[in-house]
Amino acid sequence: MAAARGLRWGLNRAGAWLLPPPAHCARRELHKKVDGTEFQSIYSLDKLYPESRGVDTAWRVPDGAKQANYDIPLDRLTISYCRSSGPGGQNVNKVNSKAEIRFHLATADWIAEPVRQKIAVTHKNKINKSGELILTSERSRYQLRNLADCLQKIRDMIAEASQPAKEPSKEDAALWRIRIENTNRERLRKKRISSAVKTSRRVEVD
């Protein structure tokens, strides 16, 4: 009797080993390998950041910014790191994860002159007394990601300043003209009221 039970138990285990794995295994689906490609986990950078594929995408200026035809020259930038107040827990108290980039905007010949002038007007609060444009990032706990974020901010500035000014439509121009007329009319009304108040305060001397 015991021998029969042992034989039955052994056959059951052998059958479990010989059975093929289930077609929809959760763990296998998470780490599925596509034929003809290298193994990549679902947590790989290519899948977490699909728009950042390639080794040079972190430094390249967008195609829309035609005034800047070259990559951002890293040798013309002053890059430094310091302690961060952003995410990272105790890691931010031990690692210089905050990235800072600065460069002299007026002499940045890798940016077209009209684009530099527009950036100087639009982002004047980010320019110090020495004329340096300062950009910082502490969004991530990783130093290189914050550096890439600073470079992305430069590309966004160039792309935004490279866009031509939009011509106002007839409706917008009419609304703008009405607003100006209403503002002038209200200003003149307040001026007349103030003048009348001052006139009433005058004392006539006989």
Walk me through the topology.
Blueprint: H1 2-18, H2 26-30, H3 45-48, E1 78-82, E2 98-104, H4 113-122, E3 132-137, H5 143-162, H6 170-201
Instruction: Bin the helical content.
Output: 40-55%
**What distance separates the N and C termini?**
139 Å
What spatial order of strands do you see in the largest sheet? 1-2-3
Structural class: mainly alpha
**Poorly predicted runs of 5 or more residues:** 26-35, 52-62, 64-70
Overall 3D form: elongated
Radius of gyration: 33 Å
> What does the largest sheet look like?
3 strands, antiparallel
What's the count of strands?
3
With helices defined by DSSP (H or I, 4 residues minimum), what is the helix count? 6
The ordered H/E elements are HHHEEHEHH
Strand percentage: 5-15%
Task: Calculate the mean pLDDT score and round it.
Answer: 75
